[in-house]
Specification:
Layout lengths: L1 H22 L3 E7 L18 H9 L1 E3 L2 E2 L5 H10 L33 H7 L3 E7 L23 E5 L20 H23 L5 H22 L2 H5 L2 E3 L2 E4 L7 H19 L3 E6 L20 H23 L6 E7 L32 H4 L3 E4 L8 E3 L3 E2 L3 H9 L15 H4 L10 E6 L2 E7 L8 E7 L19 E10 L10 E2 L4 H16 L10 H4 L28
Parallel strand pairs: 1-8, 1-9, 2-11, 3-12, 4-5, 4-8
Antiparallel strand pairs: 2-10, 5-6, 6-7, 9-10, 13-14, 14-15, 15-16, 16-17
Helix pairs in contact: 5-6, 8-9
Length: 573
């Protein structure tokens, strides 16, 4: 009896310590890849690429095999991840052919009225940081007003790219306008040439005065030349790195960019150990979006060219951040989430015609393809020691929109009550409190239109998907010329129904009328959803997407010779 009493104080101390540690606010590390396919990662079945660090998150936590983005392109999907809301609610669901901004100097962007998970984190007393890609807008009305800047969306610190990495940033002569914009430019050029030829003919026969005719032909030629000049100089216009509000590098040295992002992330973590504040850090990797420029130590190491080399460099970077958590004593109290902003880009090829896009495994389609799963089902793993059982795997539908409510509950703050939040807290599912997805219906947008609806009945195991429109693929293939166009999608009459449980690759379509009750429930839910999406200003109008010369940044104010090197990293890598 005396021996038992001697152990009692120790037991009480341990119980109190456990309660204190479990009540402590968790740190949060979000790792977001760019254009990474679900078939590119070892824990999702890849056997030809080495991704041990990403795989370790699944081993120590959970693998989400049906984690879905709200769009199959980066800007709208990232807007949804940040806000927990369908992009249509914030105006980030484009109605035009171009579904992402291609200029730093455009006034589009995520409205500052939106509440991001970073804003919620600041409410909860967190220090917040974003390292890497943003692509949610920059300045709006004047140069350096920074209206859409990450620091105006809840982040305390930013280092990275205002826009995105594009193939123009390389030195091999490849251009976006030769692929993504080739058809549009060809049509535009043809239109200008037809107009010019018509004007010349009218001038020749005397229907238009010589002065007026010359002026109109001159204007059309200037317009054509200006468009070509702008589109042929995207590196000059867009290849920039900022640290908070300071332009520190132009153009970007892409070969060292991943190492610089890691160094910035590790420095942020070190500062949090020193100030003892909880943190939310988003590592929004530039990899594996083209232009692909892996460092020399990774070049030629994989079986899949520069794309595979870049995947393995991405995994190295993830490992560096996980090691820093361990070394700084954060690992046991940090929620770590890894995902991709959309599926792999099946059509991406370099200037030599070599494939440089991702692999989406068994799933149909890819980046930009609208509602097919290859573009919206992304490789996602998550761990939270003591809260998510190690080695778990979940095939229930979850969404990147779930990040905001999941983090809000983890941080001890309320989700916004003045607007619709479409995401759900994932912890009841991940901790084993429930076995069924929080989503009964999930709406898959392509641009501003719903192209498919997922239906998870509250009972049974079948997950249904009703497809209303599908990509207009090239004949006999499941790819488009570069990125599929939502406006040119094929309307299915009648809609097609898939059993996503037994047919995840969407290979065996059924007529919706084969299951009338299922069809009726889905269409009723879709009608109700659309009635609850309030109209908002569209951020992707042609006017918003146009380049504005007065918004164009230049690090040394010596346009067009805009060159500067970040003093912080000079000679370091």
């Amino acid at each position: 009896m005396e021996r038992c009493k001697s152990w009692l104080p120790l037991v009480v101390v341990r119980v109190l310590l456990f309660q204190l540690t479990t009540c402590k606010k968790p740190n949060i590390l979000l790792l977001i890849a760019d254009d990474l396919g679900i078939g590119d990662i070892g824990c999702f079945g890849n056997t030809t690429l080495n991704t041990p660090n990403i795989d370790s998150i699944a081993r120590d936590g959970a693998l989400l095999s049906q984690h879905l983005t709200a769009a199959s392109l980066c800007s709208p999907s990232r807007a949804a991840l940040l806000t927990g809301r369908y992009p249509a609610r914030s105006g980030m669901a484009p109605k035009s052919i171009v579904r992402v901004s291609i200029f730093n100097a455009s006034p589009y962007g995520l409205p500052t009225s939106e509440i991001t998970f970073a804003k919620l984190a600041k409410q909860a007393g967190y220090k917040t940081g974003l390292i890497g890609k943003w692509h949610q807008g920059w300045s709006k009305d004047s140069l350096n007003d920074f209206h859409h800047h990450p620091l105006n969306h809840g982040f305390d610190y930013f280092y990275g790219i205002p826009l995105t990495n594009i193939k123009d940033f390389g030195d091999d002569g490849d251009r976006v306008m030769f692929s993504f914009l080739s058809n549009a430019l060809q049509r535009f050029v043809s239109l200008i040439l037809v107009i010019s030829a018509s004007l010349i003919c009218l001038c020749t026969v005397g229907y238009i005065g010589k002065v007026s005719c010359s002026l109109l032909v001159f204007i059309s030629v200037i317009l054509l030349g200006s468009v070509y000049l702008i589109m042929d100089n995207l590196k000059l216009l867009n290849s920039t790195i900022y640290r908070n509000f300071d332009l520190v590098e132009q153009p970007i040295d892409l070969e060292t960019q991943m190492a610089k992002e890691v160094a910035e992330g590790q420095e942020f973590l070190q500062a949090r150990r020193d100030d003892q504040e909880p943190f939310l850090l988003v590592m929004s990797w530039v990899h594996v979006h083209v232009y692909l420029a892996p460092r020399q130590r990774f070049l030629g190491k994989s079986k899949h060219g520069k794309y595979g080399d870049s995947v393995e460099e991405l995994d190295w970077a993830v490992g560096e951040m996980l090691s820093s958590l361990q070394q700084l004593g954060f690992a046991d109290n940090t929620l770590v989430y890894f995902t991709s902003d959309n599926g792999g880009h099946l059509e991406e090829r370099n200037i030599r015609g070599e494939l440089e896009g991702g692999y989406n495994g068994i799933y149909k389609g890819g980046k930009g393809h609208g509602a097919v799963d290859g573009g919206i089902r992304v490789p996602t793993v998550i761990k939270w020691p003591g809260r998510i059982p190690a080695g778990s795997s979940f095939s229930e539908p979850t969404s990147q929109m779930d990040v905001l409510p999941t983090l809000a509950n983890a941080m001890g703050v309320q989700v916004p009550s003045d607007r619709r939040i479409d995401g759900h807290d994932m912890m009841p599912l991940l901790s084993g409190q429930t076995s069924v997805s929080s989503y009964e219906f999930m709406f898959h947008y392509c641009g501003s239109e719903v192209h498919a609806v997922r239906y998870r009945p509250r009972g049974g195991t079948i997950i249904w998907k009703l497809t209303l429109k599908e990509p207009n693929y090239l004949p006999g293939l499941q790819v488009c010329e570069f990125v599929c166009n939502c406006a040119h999608a094929i309307t299915l009459e009648p809609p097609q129904l898939y059993d996503m449980t037994s047919d995840p690759g969407e290979k065996r379509p059924m007529h919706a009328t084969d299951h009338p009750e299922v069809y009726k429930k889905i269409m009723h839910a879709l009608e109700e959803h659309l009635q609850n999406v309030d109209p908002v200003p569209n951020q992707y109008t042609w006017r918003n997407l146009m380049w504005r010369p007065w918004l164009q940044m230049c690090c040394n104010n010596n346009y067009p010779s805009c060159t500067c090197e970040d003093e912080k990293f000079k000679g370091k890598f």
